[in-house]
Amino acid sequence: MNMHPSRREALRWMLSASLGTLTAEKQNAGTTIFHDEAGEVSFDPIRSRIQEAISHEAATGVAVSVVQGGRVVWEEGFGWANREAGVKATPHTPFSLASITKPFTATTMMTLVAEGKLALDQPANKYLAGCQLVGTARNAEAVNVRLLGAHASGLPGIFECYGPEEQRLVPSSRTLLRTYGRLAYPPGICYEYSNLGFAALNAIILALTQTELGPLMQRRVLAPLGLNNSFFGTDTVRVKSGAARYDAHGRLIPHYNTSTPASGELYASAHDLARFAVFNMRRGSMGQAGILSEKNIEELHRPVFTGPSGVATTFGWFRSRTTSGVPFFFKSGGDPGVANRMCFVPSKDLACVVVTNRSNGWELASSVCDEVLTNYLPDWRRPIEDCGYPSRPFVATMAWRGRWQGTLEGGGANMPVELRIQSDNAATLAIGSSRAEVVTELRSEGEAFTGLCTGNIDSPDAVRTAARTLQVKLLPVENWLLGRVFAIAGDPNIKNVRLPFVLTLSRS
C-alpha cells in the first residue's frame, strides 16, 4: 500500500540511519543527494545530462537509484511520470519494468524451491499437467525448470500486447503453452530469448500453488522485502499510480497488458529496485526480511548458458565481467513505452538502476548506468544482453544448398513448407499453397541460418494480427534443419506482435 510522502521520507531516513552516518544536502519528493563521512558523492554531470534530455523532449520521465555499501547514495526523479496529469517522476514512482520482471518471477519460484515444492533440475513437464511442452523431433523431457528461466530451453520467443478493448484476448499461461509450447531447438544447445519460457514458469507456479503469480509475488517477495511501490500490472487500481508510457515521439500510449505477464508485467520504483539489488547482493540491510538463504540466491545467480562473448544467462539474470574480470549481474527491460537498465556488482556492494517511460529511452538508461558505474569501476564496460552468436554474412556451403521440405506447426497451424537455398544471397520460402517468397537479409548466427520474408500463416492469431513479416532462424541438427519462424506485425515503439511457429525440415 502506498504511504503518504512524509511518512515515506521518515521511513527512508530511519533506514539510512541504521546503515551508517548519512546527512542529506537536499531533499524533496523527487530528489535525495547523500553525503557520507568521506564527503559528497557528486552526480551533477549525470543529472545535467538527464535534465537536458528532458528539456529537449528526448525523454519524458526518468528515475535513478544508486547503491554503494548496502545503502542508497543517490536517487532522483526527473521529468514526468504522467505529463497529462501533471505528475512528476520521483524515485518512488512505480515504472513499468518490462523484462526486469523476470528476476522477480525467478525469485518467487525460488521460494518454492526453498520449501521443497520444486526442483530446478527436474523436467518442466513434471509440473505442467494439461499444458506440457511438445518436443516433436526434440526431446521435451530434457527441458528442466532451470533452462526455462535461462533462455536455453529450446522454446522460441513470443510477444503480444493488448489494449483496453482487447482484454478478452489475453491468454492464460496454460492456454499460451497449449497453443505455442513447442520446442524450436533441442534443449540446452542454443540461446533464444524466450518470454514463452517464463509463461511456462508461470504455469508451474499456478499448478503448485493454485495462486496467480501477482498475489503470490506480493506475498512472498515484494512485501517481505519492503518493496512498497511495486505491484503486478494486473492490479488495475494500483496501475493508475504508476508512470504512464510514451512512444519515441513523446505521445501517450494507452495502457496495455502482454501475453506473458510473468516476463514483463511488474511495476516498481527505482528505490524498490535498489532494495532488490541489495537483497541480491546478500546484504541483510535496509530492513529486509531474509526470504531466501545465501545458497538459494547463489542458485539464482549461477550461470546456466554461456555465449561466445562470455555473457551468461542465469535463472532470471544475465552475468558478465568487467575488463579486469569482476563479475556483475544485469537485466534490461524494453517494451512500448519502457526502457530500463539494472546492474549490480556483489563484490563491490554496488548497484545502479535507471527506469524510463519512453520507447526510445534505452540508450539514455544504459549510458547513465555506464557513467555511474565507471565512477566506481574504471574498467566497467557495457554488457550486451545476448548470449547468441554475432550476425555475419551467410555462406551457402553444400551442406546448406538445395531443397528442404517439412512442416510449420504451432498456433493452430500445420502447414507444408519448402525452403530453397541457391547461393549466399538467394533463397526462397514457400508456406502452404502460397507461392515461394524471396528470403532477404541472409545471415548466419554461429551455425544457424537467418533471413526475412513475407507470407501468410494459417493461424488464428497470425490472421487476427495481420502478422505477415516472417523472421526465420534454422539450426542444422543431424540431418534436419530445426528452428522457428516469427510472424511479426506492428510498430515496436507503440504496439506489436511476434508469434512463434516451429519448423522441421529435411533435405528432399
Describe the structure.
By secondary structure, the protein is an alpha+beta fold. It has a domain at 391-507: Lipocalin. Helices cover 25% and strands 32% of the residues. Strands 1, 2, 3, 4, 5, 6, 14, 15, 16, 17, 18 and 19 form a twelve-stranded antiparallel sheet that branches. Strands 8, 12, 20, 21, 22, 23, 24, 25, 26, 27, 28 and 29 form a twelve-stranded antiparallel sheet that branches. Strands 7-13-9 form a three-stranded antiparallel sheet.
List keywords for this structure.
508 residues; alpha+beta; 12-stranded antiparallel sheet; 29 strands; 25% helix; globular; disordered N terminus
CATH class of the domain at 391-507: Mainly Beta
User: Counting H and I runs of at least 4 residues, what is the number of helices?
Assistant: 13
Question: Could you say what the CATH topology of the domain at 391-507 is called?
Answer: Lipocalin
- Work out the number of β strands: 29
How many strands, which pairing sense, and closed or not: the largest β-sheet? 12 strands, antiparallel
Share of helix, binned: 10-25%
